[in-house]
Amino acid sequence: MTTxxxxxxxxxxxxxxHNRYSPAVRSNGFLFVSGQVGSREDxxxxxxxxxxxxxxxxxxxxILAAAGCTFDDIVDVTVFIVDPESKFDTxxxxxxxxxxxxxxxxxxxxxxxxxxxxxxxxKVIAKLPDVSND
Length: 134
Hints:
By secondary structure, the chain is an alpha+beta fold. The chain has 4 helices and 6 strands. A hairpin with a 2-residue loop joins β2 and β3 (30-37).
């Protein structure tokens, strides 16, 4: 079995070990990032939706930075939203702060009924920067 090349953001390794998953894995030139939610330092959900979305993006950006990436390296995004009909506008008004300039990554938005107490989750695939020594 191949050993996974796991990326941990600073200061949150215990949270991932407790929940038994990797925050991100490098493979074949890509970074596959697990769904990120707006959790507080202890892993509990932030109750305020706007703050929760910002924390989810902050958590995502910490993982991207740990892998040497930025949001501009993302090629595919999946978001999960509990009750998207009532929450989509609130969430989507915050996206431009994090999304970057066009062209934008691909996007799949999924309405769900449960996210372990969270209202929003974002999962991405990013292209790792070339590190060749030309």
